[in-house]
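FORM 7B: Structural annotation worksheet

SECTION A. Query
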Amino acid sequence: MNSIKNVFLLFTLMIMIFNYIFVPKAQAYSYGDPGKEELAEAYKQIDQYTKQDEWDQALAVYQNYEKEFTLYFKKPKEFIDLGFKEKDRELLLEGYQSALALNIERRLHFAEESFEEYGQAKLLLAKARGTYDVLYPLVEEELGNEKADEIYVAFDNALTSLGNPGLFGIGNQESDLEAFQKNINLIKDIVIETFPLPNESDNEESHLTEENLRIDTSLNDESHPFWFWFTIGLVVVFVVIVILQRRKKS
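SECTION B. Predicted structure
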């Protein structure tokens, strides 16, 4: 019986360690490698293709993400679609930029809602930052280097304010919701103001509506399947060992 208990404790410890070390890393990208937002990265391709007057290639890239625009970015989508239809590069890019600003706002909104769930909040924050990486050169051009870098400082401060649960409570850091809100609000205010919708009359309305605040399921694919199945495998092995041990004693 003692051997079974020892095996159980060993496997439980291994599961906890692997879940802490590997799952958060997969879900909460470090800021050295900040989990790129694919929808934002697509903007750079579209920018390049339309600059070279390769509209078919640009449209093909956009269509890979059109479902997300339909779900979450309906207003910007109208301008993007019109930009493609009329081959109006400026209108297209401005519409896409406003969608990216909205994406940052959505990610930060859900990060605040997930504030108590460290891994999820950190991932959402990283996704927002990954989107801002794409917009950074435009912010720098519009507002200057100092203001553009101020956003990165706010992201760093927001990350710090999430705290850190530590491993088994060791090395844990307290979270600070008020500081988190202060920093994400600074980010949202600057980004949304810098990238309004092309039609200024629509900018009086909130960027966050019932439609684009649907349940955010886009992070489900960020989990790490290897370590999920590794954990399942450990459980299965443990069950097999317990069964074998009981058979030996019977």
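SECTION C. Observations
The chain has eleven helices and no strands. Residues 33-222 form one domain.

SECTION D. Sign-off
Analyst initials: ____
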